[in-house]
Amino acid sequence: MQNKLAWWEPKWSYRPAVRKEATRLVRAISTVLTITAAIVLFLICLCNHYLPGLEFNWLRAVAIGAGLMAGYLGLFLAFHWFVPPRVGITAKRVSFLNGSHGVQWRLDDIHSARVTEVGPEQRVLVIQNVAGRERQCGLPQHVSLGELQERFGARWNAAPLPPNTANKEFVAAMGRWPIVMSVFMLVLVLVQVVAGIMGVSRAVFDIIMRALTAVGGAMAVIFFIKAYRFDRAHRAAHKKLGLPEK
Fold first, then answer.
1. Are 110 and 130 contacting, i.e. CB atoms less than 8 angstroms apart?
2. Phi, psi of 115 (to 5 degrees)
């Protein structure tokens, strides 16, 4: 048996995910550009009123920023479209390399591994760790099932654990709180910029910043309290059902 079994994922396996991610990023960038345009318009109005002598090409600056963002996004998507993820299995670990992002699972932490047929000559390797998390990767035809079975041993075709849904449950429990905190941080930055442009006195500026800092601290405390309560409830539910804590 060779020291390492490795392969590039087939196009049919990873490109649909890249296409889905591209759609999500384009929508997100559109939202960011819309918000940025509104902020820039607001700053232009302030500068025209309080700093009429300021010479700054706002349109050129916004166009350069948008162009750089679009160029970076294009290069990012092109790289992930043409360079497939790399999967490697050694005697100690399984590695997944996707662009600059890499994940490694120790073989001792893997609970089960199996292969499923998803189409004509299309096979997917499904690996699940002891925490219930799964990773899937496409298998090219040259990868032997016998060699995979030899690598995973008793883990091959073992009964899978219930899927780990902790991340989705956490997002549902926290609701829109992370978004609210992000918007608040943006408002905090804008207040500083606007106060500087309007020439607000130092004393008033300090009062505003202390109030906003207190509000931000309270929001952070509430966030961590909610996260702690979710973690306690999640562990208690798994303990009651006799499942491993995730």
1. yes
2. -120, 135
Which range is least confidently modeled, 117-131, 132-146, 211-225? 211-225
Number of domains in the chain: 2
H-assigned helices in 83-143: none
Inter-CA distances, 72 with 69, 175, 185, Å: 5, 31, 25
pTM of structure: 0.64
Residue 28 pLDDT level (bands cut at 50, 70, 90): confident
Q: Are residues 26 and 52 in the same domain?
A: yes
**What span, in angstroms and rounded, lies between the C-alpha atoms of 35 and 28?**
11
For residue 87, give Cα distances in angstroms to 139, 140, 179, 238: 9, 11, 35, 32
Average pLDDT on 118-144 reads 89
Q: Which of 164, 189, 216 is the last residue of a domain?
A: 164
Please say if the pLDDT value at position 47 is more than 60. yes
**What is the per-residue DSSP string for 184-234?**
HHHHHHHHHHHHHHHT--HHHHHHHHHHHHHHHHHHHHHHHHHHHHHHHHH
Among residues 121, 145, 164, the one where a domain terminates is 164
> Are 73 and 42 found together in one domain?
yes
DSSP letter at 126?
E
Helix 177-198 and helix 11-50, axial crossing angle in degrees, nearest 10: 30
pLDDT at 165: 62
